[in-house]
Design brief:
This protein is an all-alpha fold. 52% of the residues lie in helices and 0% in strands. The radius of gyration is 13 Å and the shape is globular.
């Protein structure tokens, strides 16, 4: 994880590559996390999902289910899965600076 730490600057990651403090998030951190996780380049669709899950988390203190993400962003479930092939938690949640969800392997 030390190489990953250097790649994103001063933002700290846990052992699973999630930010330890969501206040350290920025669009640049998200871009670097995307590179580390081989996601992207980030498109407008990526950003719509990332920003929605981040806003939802900051309001409710939990990540939204993928169905809510699809409704809110206007993207199909297939599209969301295609732009985050590693899954919503390991993709969108991680890039949005959210903690690893309970039960996420």
């Amino acid at each position: 994880m030390e190489a990953a730490q250097n790649a994103i600057g001063s933002a700290a990651l846990d052992n699973d590559g999630f930010l330890t403090d969501h206040d350290e998030w920025s669009r640049e951190v998200a871009r670097r996390l995307a590179e580390l996780n081989e996601i992207g380049p980030l498109t407008d669709d990526h950003w719509r999902v990332i920003e929605y899950v981040r806003t939802y988390y900051l309001k409710y203190r939990e990540g939204p289910p993928v169905v809510k993400i699809a409704r809110a962003t206007g993207l199909s479930l297939d599209r969301i899965c295609s732009i985050f092939p590693c899954g919503i938690a390991r993709g969108a949640y991680r890039l949005a600076g959210l903690p690893r969800p309970a039960g996420c392997l």
